[in-house]
């Protein structure tokens, strides 16, 4: 059956890595007889903003909601539009409007990728960050008072709902249950953030009662970031609020070598709306336009998309091809961040042709 | 002239490391002819809470405000009193009531301490985290609604004031100006936290105009934690909100080996109230009572206290003694977290006697 995919490359290196993601998806679809149909969208970009004065057209919701998934690059080009305007006007809007309340981000030490931490090899680090993706610290309630005076004050509300907290905890506990170690870690800060975080802890405790088979613990976010560095092999599934999950899902990939390879899935588990798949990295203005961005985060996000669409065989094929190309250590295809002298395309091409010949 | 110090060991390993801190302070004071007078307080502890039902006596403010400084261990014993109750009832109360609006935390790779990051040696990493310490995400405004129902909702306000933001920025820019690299990094998250963090950025920009000699940049907190791991030698002075500073000042010390050696100073720069000196680590229930806690975080906090009291020579002496004992690699005095088989006392004693014989 046909699957329709909305492709939104966005800004900067998003424009460079999305084509490589599509190249690999095309190769693996052909091999597995999957019918992927892509539609291209130019909104959610600084170019679109410059032409229209908004990040999205008025009918964006209806244009996108019928797709089976959204394949997203990166958004953000602060020279043209401030980040909070571009992000709240696109990506953060998608997450909330399409109720993609799970942001799932694997952290895995891959072969051929050098970890900045000494003493760990491929396979030693392998965990998921499950991030709440629609509420919490990313709130739109708040404002400014006594503007422009010495008494100026700015407030912003963190908002947690029982529905919002429980559903991400349930997803995380289910995921932990499905894994060999059945271990869940909750990120908190209930000693300092004294209203919302104790509530988070309370709901974790209630949820855990339905999962006697899952071993769980909790750490305050400060010492948890320290433990990501000191004991990265201690984690299996880490569940966190929107902000804490954001932090941990950049730190985790950094501990496994480079955020250039890290993928993410913004999931609406009920399938009421399309889910969105994007690399963890941003638009990277500093290296944009040079053709040297690592496309693996985007390609791996494509594998997560295939998985979500039920194409697990194809998804596994993509992951195996990524690992095989990384293991080869072939400097002529690998991008500079991986120690090579290849380009975005040479790396995408190598992965695509590995799939064909696998 | 006499300096009066309030000693508050608190809970867990606080009880074990404060005596070692005092031993070292005694030794260095004797050597430099400094007259330090200690007074002991048993409040701000779970024991006190069990006996009195509160963390502090009613007159705590008046009892403490006349001291020149507070030498603090650690507080928190969740089996007896929930962390947010014990912390808001003591440490966080002190910080706010004594307007200790600067939390200064050095991160330095010391000789003899193994960093989990490969490729860095002593001297390569040497920066300060300057944390806002009285407002921001650590707020007491918020609450719960529709309690106990499916519609349950919890909110908590982040509050930033111009006064609060500007004064910590000023301190950080001044500190950056005084250092060889004159480099300041601001921690933000203005792409996601769209009201308070853009305000923070705005104030950084305004403040920077008074410091043309300081080179500054800003990173979103997610990628900043990644950069602590990937490029720890890129930092000089990092200024951050209360929560972000809390995170960065645990992560930084983890990147330099162990949070057991990390000190902190909660400073009221105007001297209207006593400042408070405490290790970054907590009460560590898991190792409390075994006599194996590393006292260096506490001892180094003592050095920061001497510095604050104007005794810079004595402060330098303590730091040199710490480095010398660490460099010795003497496993019989070093604590287990440093790879030794010594105890809290053996390490404190070694540092004290090094000072005497220096
Ligand atoms: C114990 C806790 C409330 C405290 C904080 O978050 O400030 C601690 O982590 C610290 O860094 O001093
Ligand atoms: C770009 C930014 C708003 C976004 C976030 O904070 O969610 C990004 O960091 C991410 O992790 O997807």
From TrEMBL, chains A, B:
Q: Which UniProt keywords apply?
A: Lyase, Manganese, Metal-binding, NAD, Oxidoreductase
Where would I find the Isopropylmalate dehydrogenase-like domain in this sequence? 4-351
Kindly state which reaction or reactions the protein catalyses: (R)-malate + NAD(+) = pyruvate + CO2 + NADH
Cofactor(s) needed for function: Mn(2+); Mg(2+)
Supply the PROSITE patterns for this chain.
Answer: IDH_IMDH
Query: Origin, by domain of life?
Result: Bacteria
The record, for SUPFAM superfamilies, names: Isocitrate/Isopropylmalate dehydrogenase-like
Residues in a coiled coil are: none
Q: What GO molecular function annotations does the UniProt record carry, in alphabetical order? A: D-malate dehydrogenase (decarboxylating) (NAD+) activity; lyase activity; magnesium ion binding; NAD binding
EC numbers for this chain: 1.1.1.83
Q: What class of enzyme is it?
A: oxidoreductase
Q: What's the family?
A: Belongs to the isocitrate and isopropylmalate dehydrogenases family.
**What PANTHER family does this protein map onto?**
D-MALATE DEHYDROGENASE [DECARBOXYLATING]
Mind telling me what this protein is named? D-malate dehydrogenase (decarboxylating)
């Amino acid at each position: 059956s046909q699957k329709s995919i909305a492709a939104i490359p966005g800004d900067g290196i998003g424009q460079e890595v999305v084509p490589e993601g599509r190249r690999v998806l095309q190769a693996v679809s052909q091999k597995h007889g999957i019918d992927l149909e892509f539609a291209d969208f130019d909104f959610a970009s600084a170019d679109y903003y410059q032409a229209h004065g908004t990040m999205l057209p008025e009918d964006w919701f209806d244009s996108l909601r019928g797709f089976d998934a959204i394949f997203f690059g990166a958004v953000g080009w602060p020279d043209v539009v401030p980040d909070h305007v571009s992000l709240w006007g696109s990506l953060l809007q998608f997450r909330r409007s399409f109720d993609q309340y799970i942001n799932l981000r694997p952290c895995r030490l891959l072969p051929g990728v050098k970890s900045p931490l000494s003493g760990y090899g491929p396979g030693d680090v392998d965990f998921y960050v499950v991030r709440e993706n629609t509420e919490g610290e990313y709130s739109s309630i708040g404002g400014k008072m006594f503007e422009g005076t010495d008494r100026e004050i700015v407030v912003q509300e963190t908002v947690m709902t029982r529905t919002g907290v429980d559903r991400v905890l349930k997803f995380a506990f289910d995921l932990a249950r499905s894994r060999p170690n059945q271990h869940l870690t909750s990120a908190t800060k209930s000693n300092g953030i004294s209203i919302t975080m104790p509530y988070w802890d309370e709901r974790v405790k209630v949820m855990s009662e339905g999962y006697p088979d899952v071993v769980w613990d909790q750490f305050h976010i400060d010492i948890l970031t320290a433990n990501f560095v000191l004991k990265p092999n201690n984690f299996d599934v880490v569940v966190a609020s929107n902000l804490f999950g954001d932090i941990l899902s950049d730190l985790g990939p950094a501990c496994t070598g480079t955020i250039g390879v890290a993928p993410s899935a913004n999931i609406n588990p009920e399938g009421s709306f399309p889910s969105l798949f994007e690399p963890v990295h941003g638009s990277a203005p500093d290296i944009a336009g040079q053709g040297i961005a690592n496309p693996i985060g985007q390609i791996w996000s494509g594998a997560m998309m295939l998985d979500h669409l039920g194409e697990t065989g194809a998804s596994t094929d993509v992951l195996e091809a990524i690992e095989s190309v990384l293991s080869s250590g072939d400097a002529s295809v690998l991008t500079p961040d991986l120690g090579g002298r290849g380009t975005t395309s040479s790396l995408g091409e190598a992965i695509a042709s590995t799939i064909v010949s696998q």
